[in-house]
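Entry, Tuesday afternoon. Goal for today is a structural model of the target with zinc ion bound, before we commit to ordering more compound. Inputs were pasted exactly as handed over by J.K., no edits. I checked the ligand SMILES twice against the vendor sheet because last time a stereocentre got dropped in transcription.
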Amino acid sequence: MRTLLINCGPIVHLSSDDDVATRTVDNSVIEEGKAIIIEDGVIANIAPSQEVISEYGDNSGHHTIDVHGRAVIPGLIDAHAHLLWSGDRSQEVRWRLEGKTYRDISEMGGGIQSTVNATRASSSDELQKEGYVRLRSALRTGTTHMEVKSGYGLNTETELKLLEVASALSSDRNLPTLDPTWMGAHDTPKGMPHEAYIESLISEQLPSIVEQGIARSADVFCEPGWFSVEESEDILKESKSSGLDLRMHIDEFADSGGSQLAAELKVQTADHAYHTSLDDRLKMKAAGVITGFLPGTPYAMGDLWPNMSEIHKHEIPYTLATDFNPNCQTLSLPFMASLMVQRCKVQPLDALASMTVTAAKSSPHKNGVHGIIREGAIANLNILDSPHWESFSLKPSHTPFSATVLNGTFISH
Ligand SMILES: [Zn+2]
C-alpha cells in the first residue's frame, strides 16, 4: 500500500542533527512544495510534488492526499507517562488548596494509595478500556509513541497486570505504540515495611517482570522519603544486570544526589530534575544521560518552571513529556510545548526536538527509526492545520493538527 502526501507546506524533518548547538531552522526544515511517499508504513521518499504527481499520475493502487500547503512535523513521542491506573482523585485539589499536606491527604484516604487500591481492584479489561480512551486522546494531539510506566500496583500481581495491559494496547494498530517500563519502586504500599518492600522488589517483583519479558526498562522514584540514593542504586543495579535499561525520577522535591547516581549508572533518562545543580547537570550530560522535563507537573501542582535559559546555554540534552498521572491529567504534548514556548522562552524548534528526535533516544521504537522525517524512517507524522509549523506550540486548548499519520495510516482529526 502506497500513500502520497502531496503539496506539503514546510516539513520539519529534524534529521540532519540532534545537537542542541548546531540545530537551526535552516538545517531542520524543508521548504514547501514537497511530497512524502509512504510505503508499508515507512517513508519511502521525499520529492517535489510535481515530480511525484507526474510519476504516479492517476494510477490506482495508492492513496493520494493533498496537504494544501499545511506544515508537517514528526509524530510526537511522550517519553514519560504513567498511563495506566484507575480511580479519580479530583477532590484532592480542594484539600491541597486548603493547605492540607501530602500526609494529611493520605490520612484522609487520598494520595497514591487510593490509586493503588482502585488499580488493584480493576480487571485487565477495565484497565485496557481506560488506557484505550487515554491513548486515543493522546493520538488526537499528535502522540504516536509513548513510554508507559507501571507503578500503581505496588505488588507483583498488579505490576505484571499493568505491563500485560500495556503490551495488549501497544499491539493495537489504531493506537500509539508503547515502550513499557516497570516502576514497582514508585512508592511503598501501605501496611508493608519499607525495607521489606525493597527486598520483595529485588527478590520477587523484578524476576517476575523479567520472566514476563514485556518491560524494556526499570524506573525508580529517587527522592528523600521515597527511595534513597542507596536504595535506588540497589534496585537499578539489579535491574541492569537482569537486562533492563534504566530510568530515574530525580530531584523533584530536593537536590538529593539522584543526579549523581544517574550519571554514575549512565541511565537513559533522569526526569523532573528541577532542583538539580548545574554541576550535576553537566555530569549527567557528560555521561550521556538525557534530562526529562515534565512541565505538566509544575503546571498542575503550582511549582516553579525549570530555568530553561541555563539548560540551553549549557546545551543540556532534554526531552519534554507529559508525566500523565492522577494529579496531572493531560496527555497533550502540544500543551507542554505551549507551556515552554509561551511561558519559558523556549524556541519552538527546541520544544519540538525535545518531543521528537531527542525523545526517540529516550524511548526508541522497536520497529525502527522514529521522531524524524526522512527516507527509511517509520511514517509517523503530524499535519498541522496551519502553513506555519510553529503553530503546534500555540494551541494549548485543542489539537493543532488536522491529521496524524500513524505507522503509515492516515487519521483525520
Ligand atoms: Zn513520573
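The mean pLDDT is 95.
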